[in-house]
Amino acid sequence: MLGERWCVSLLVPAATAIVLSAPAENARWGREGHKIVCEIAWRRLDPDGRQLVSDLRRHDPSETFADSCTWADAVRYTTHRHTRTYHYINVPTGRRGVDMERDCGHTTRCLPWAIRHYAIALQDRSQTGATRAEALRFLGHFVGDLHQPMHVGRLEDRGGNSIDVELEFASDCVRRNLSLHTVWDITFLCHAGITWPGSVLELDRGITQRQAASWGNFDVLGWTNEAYRLDEEFVYQLPAGGEIDPAYYDRAVEISRIQLQRAGVRLAFLLNAAAAGTLGFPD
Ligand code: ADE
Ligand code: ZN
Ligand code: ZN
């Protein structure tokens, strides 16, 4: 997984390491991540799933299904402000996992809630095409967000948004003001050369049948806790000084890849079920 650029970057002396500080909290899993997830899902749709997506895309100006999956971030602070909390869920530090009552609440809606909500809206044929097309755009986006581990983060640092990181390397992917949240949204994928559409085939083909069978299910809370476990076991275990070293980077890229693959499989699973009218979320 070590890209050429990393090797070059190791030659950059530590003294020139770029010290970066926290960004605004609207950092998002970069457009690439969202498009990759939706493209993997598209490849895995059955004929009815493809028909559903193709039909609804007539209500949508974006060129491809993958393109439509970044729309939710564009409207989060503009026309659809009520959805701004739908992109994440945070857990108080020290808890063992997500508690929907505590962490999502009755009024502040959150990411796993939104996934169920828009999947159900998508399946509901009594809704207008425009409403269901919007539900499709949201669903494609939010299944991606749920698999970026920092979108299921700790409350105290708002999913890594208030943790500054230092990177040992410089490249086109490294910008000023990077937080732990943003490096997981954008920097690791960028630095590893994981792009849309270039990386889609390779990521999709890397999914074994056994993985696909075990990942595809309706256990959205389980997916959420899986992301939270990744945070606790790895993401927050930063090297001393918050400096991202090669070992952390390598593991981060590995995790990012498998999360993109899981997200693609799970999105396809939900879309196929919505097309078949067989969505079956647990109570
Ligand atoms: N705002 C607050 N917490 C957040 C999180 N975990 N991800 C994205 N935006 C947030
Ligand atoms: Zn983000
Ligand atoms: Zn988002």
Précis, in short:
The chain is mainly alpha-helical and 283 residues long. It is 52% helix and 4% strand.
Write structural notes for this entry:
The protein has 283 residues and is mostly helical. Helix content is 52%, strand content 4%. The protein has a single domain, classed as Orthogonal Bundle (P1 Nuclease), CATH 1.10.575. The radius of gyration is 18 Å and the shape is globular. It starts with a helix and ends in a 7-residue tail after the last helix. The N terminus is likely disordered.
Q: Would you spell out the secondary-structure blueprint of this structure?
A:
Blueprint: H1 4-10, E1 18-19, H2 31-43, H3 47-56, H4 65-68, H5 71-75, E2 89-91, H6 100-103, H7 111-123, H8 129-146, E3 152-154, E4 166-167, H9 180-191, H10 200-205, H11 209-215, H12 220-235, E5 243-244, H13 246-276
Parallel strand pairs: 2-3, 4-5
Antiparallel strand pairs: 1-4
Helix pairs in contact: 2-8, 2-13, 3-13, 7-8, 7-13, 8-13
Bound molecules: adenine and zinc ion (2 copies).
Q: What are the salient characteristics of this protein?
A:
52% helix; two-stranded parallel ribbon; P1 Nuclease; three-stranded mixed sheet; 5 strands; 283 residues; mainly alpha; binds adenine; 13 helices
CATH architecture: Orthogonal Bundle
Unreliable runs:
1-27
Q: Which kinds of small molecule does this entry bind, naming each only once? A: adenine, zinc ion
The order of strands across the largest sheet is 1-4-5
Using the CA coordinates, give the radius of gyration.
Answer: 18 Å
Mean pLDDT: 89
The outline comes out as globular
User: Could you say which structural class the secondary elements and strand pairing correspond to?
Assistant: mainly alpha
What is the CATH H-level superfamily? Answer: P1 Nuclease
Strand runs, count: 5
Helix content: 40-55%
Estimate the strand proportion.
Answer: under 5%
Number of individual domains? 1
Distance between the termini: 40 Å
